[in-house]
Queue: 4 jobs
Job 1
Amino acid sequence: MSQYEVLNKEKHRHLRIKTGYGAALGDAVMYAMTYPTEFRDIQSCYPILFTKDPNTGGFFAAAVLGFEPDQNLFLQDNSWDASYVPAVLQRQPFLIATGGEGDNESPVVSLDLDHPRVSQDEGEALFDAEGGATEFLNQKIALLDKLHRGLQHSRGFIDTLLKHELLEQITLDIAFNDGRKESVQGFYCIAEERLYQLKGDVLESLNQAGYLQPVFMAVASLSRMRDIIERRNRLRL
C-alpha cells in the first residue's frame, strides 16, 4: 500500500531516500508508463507499446521491461542494465499531486512514506541542516515537473491516436530457448497499415501537434523486442 503525504520540510526533514536499483526497491515491474516527449530516450532501449489503465480504462504508453508480472529483465544485481531509466521509475518514491481547491489547484510534491526507498538512516538526504532542499531533492523536483508536463501532453497524443484509429491490439507469442512459451496479452501497438494510409492534411496536423515523430519512434522501438527476448533467454530458471 502507498501512503502519500505532501512533502514538508519540518515533518520529513530527517528522511532519506535509498538510491540504486533492485527488486527490493520497487523496480521489479513488467512495464513502465512513458509519454511522447520521452520516446526518443525510451526507444533507444525498450519497446514502446500501449495498454489500458485497469482502473479507468484509459490508454497510456508503456516501456516494456519483461514478459510477465514483476519481471524486469534490465535489473542486474543492484544496477540497471540500460543507458536510460524511464522517468516514472526515476522519480520514485515521489509523486506530483494537486493542492488547493477548484481553480486554485496546483501541482505539489508528495512522498510515499511506505515506499521501500524511504529510510530514516540510509540514502540521500532531502533537506540540509538549515531546512533547505538538497541538490538531490531539487533534481527529483525537476524530474517530477518534466514528468508532469509530459503526461499532460500525452493525453492529447492518445486522444489523437484513437481518433485516427492508430492503435490495434497485439498478442506477443514468444518461444524461448529453454522451451518455455509466453503469450503476452493486453497490449496495443501503432496500426502501421492504417498509419501509412493517412492523407497529407492529417499527417501535417499530427506533425504540427508534435505527435508524428513519437508515432514513428513507437513503431521503430519494436525492434528492441529482440533484445528483451535475448535477456530472457539468458536467465537461469
Job 2
Amino acid sequence: MSNNPALRLLLLLLLLITPAQQLLAHAVTSGDKGYIQEITGQHLIPFMYLGAKHMVTGYDHILFLFGVVFFLYRLKDIALYVSLFAIGHSVTMLLGVYFSIGINSYLIDAIIGLSVVYKSLDNLGAFKRWFGVQPDTRLATLAFGLCHGFGLSSKIIDYDIAPDGLVANLLAFNIGVELGQLLALCAILIAMGVWRKSTGFWQQAYQVNVVVMTLGFILFGYQMTGYFIS
C-alpha cells in the first residue's frame, strides 16, 4: 500500500461508510439496545463499557477530534480543546436524556457531519482567506461539542432507559465516553507524532484535510437523505 497518509486515510474512511446503514452515527448495536431496554437499577460498569465502546466506534466523533488536534503541538493546548469538546458533549448528553430533549437524530447527525467539514476548512485556513476573519476555534469546539452531545442523547432517549438508576447510569456512560475519547486521542496523537516527522507532512496535511472534509459532506448528505425519506 502507498506510504501516502492521505491515500491510506481515504481507503479507511471508505470502509467506514460502507454499507450505508453504518452511517447512522451514534447508533447502538441491537444487542446493546436490548440490554439497555431490559435492565433496571444501577449498572455502572456495563454503562461505562457501553460509553467507551460508543466513542471508540463513533467515527464522526473521531473525525472531529482528529481535526481539532491536527495542528496542536503543545499538551496544554490539546488538553484545553479536548476539555472544551468533552464539556460540551457531556452537558448536552446528560441534560438531553434527563429532561428528554429530543432532536431529530438525522438532523443532529447532519450538523455533526458539518462540524467535520468546518474543522477541515478551518485547518485549511479557508475562513481567513474567504472572509478575512478567523473564527474563535475554542468557542467553535465547545459549540460543536454541544451538538455532538445531543447526537448521543437523541439515540439514548430512543432506547427508553429505565428511570431507576438513570442518573448514575448516565454518569457512568459519560465517564465511559471520556475514557473512550482518551483512548482514541492517544492513538491519534501517536500516529500524528510519527507522521509529523516525515518530510512530506505539510503537503500531505492539505490532502488529508480535504479527504476528511469530503467525508464530512458525505455524512451530511446521507443524514439529510435519511431525514427526507424517513
Job 3
Amino acid sequence: MEKWLKFNKIDVFKTEWNSSELVKEITSKGKKKGNLTPTTFSLLHATDFADRFERNILPLLRAGYFVLADRYVYTAYARDVTRGCNYKWVRKVYDFALKPDITFYFKTPIDIAIDRILSGRPKLKYYEAGMDLDFSKDIYESYRIFQSKIISQYDAMSKQENFTIIDASLDIPKQQSVMREKVMKLLTKKLVKVVKEK
C-alpha cells in the first residue's frame, strides 16, 4: 500500500506497532527478564503509541500526509483484554487516539495464521506465544489458544468499529486490489471535501 500511494504521488508515512525508540529498549529488557505483568505490558505499549502519535502521526496528519499504521489501538484492545486487562480501562488509556478514516481487518482462519507465522521464524517467543498467561505448557498450543482469543476480540470489534474486512486467505495481489479500491474511494471523497471547502 505504501509504495502504491507514493507511486500515485500521495505523501505517505508508515508507522509500526512497538517501534518507538523511547520504549523499545525498556520493553526488550522487561521481556528478557520475564517480569512483565499484563498491566505493565499494556502501559509500555501505550507509551510507545503515545510517543509515536505525538511525534509522528498527529504532526504528519496535520501536514496533509496519509498515515499508514501497521496495527493501531485495536491491537492493544485485543491483546490487552486477552491478557486480562479491563476493557474499559484499556479504552480509556488510548482515548486520545484519533479514529482512523479506514481500518482494514485481515481476517484469517487460525490454522492459516499460525502456518504463516511459524513458516517465517525459527521459534516463537515467550510473550508472543502467551506463555505468561498459563494457557498451556506447550508453546505452540499456548500460541494457538492466545491467537484464537485475540481473533475473537477482533471479531467482536469489527462491527462496533466498522472495520473493512479483507479475506486474508486470498492471494496478496487480490488483497491489494481490494484495499486499493477502498482507499481510492476514500481519497476521492477527501479530495471532493477539500475542493468544496475552498
Job 4
Amino acid sequence: MEQINPAQYELVYNFFSFTIAAMGSATAFLWLNRSQVASYYRPALTISGLVTFIALYHYLRIFESWEAAYTVVDGAVQATGKKFNDAYRYVDWLLTVPLLLIELILVMRLSRSETVSKSVRLGTLAALMILLGYPGEISDQDNVRWLWWALSMIPFLWILVELFGGLSSSLAAQPESVRGLVNRARWLTVLSWSFYPVVFVLPMLGLEGAAADTAIQIGYSIADVVAKAVFGIVIYMIAVRKTEAEGGA
C-alpha cells in the first residue's frame, strides 16, 4: 500500500465500518425472518445469511488489518510497517460468490436434478473466476494483470450466458407475481458483479499510488454490499412472494 493522506485513510476506514454494519444487519434480518417463508425457501435464506455472515467476518479482519497497517499521529497518517492484508477479500469471494448463485437457484424452486446441475456448474464457474483473478490482483505488472483479468472474464461471461439463457425457461415457470423480482435479481447479480472487473483495472488505466488503493478498497466494498446484503434482501422478497402465491404458511 502507498502512503495515504488522512482523508483517504478515514474514507476507507468509514467504508469498512459501513460494510461491517450492512453485512451484520443483513445476516440478522435474513436468519431471524426465515419463519416468514415456506419451508422450501428457508435454505435459500439460510445460505443468503451465511454469505453476509462470512463477509462480516472477513470485513472485520480487513478492518483490523487496515488499523494495524496505519496509525494517525498528530493528524498525519503513518505506516506502521505491517502489511495490509487484502487477500481476505479473495478468501471471502471464493466462499461467497458460488453461494450467491446457489441461493438464487434455490429460491426459484427448480426440479431437483436441475437445481443440482445448475448449482454445481455455476458454483464451479464462480470459483474458477475468483481463482483466476487472484494472481492478477497481487501483481504490480500491468501485462500480468491484464492476462489474468482476461482469463477470469471467461467464466464470468459463461455465468452471464447461464443466467440469461439457461434460466430463461425457468423464469417463465415462476409465479407471475415474482417474475419481475427474479429478473431484477439476475440483473442485480450481473450489474454488481460487473463492478468488480472495473475496479480491478483501475490501476491499469492510469490511477496510481494511494488514490488507486483508496478507490479499490471503496469500490470493492460498495460492490460487496450490493452483491451480498442488497441481493439477500431481494432473495427474501422473492421467497415471501412465492410463499404467498403458493398458499404457504
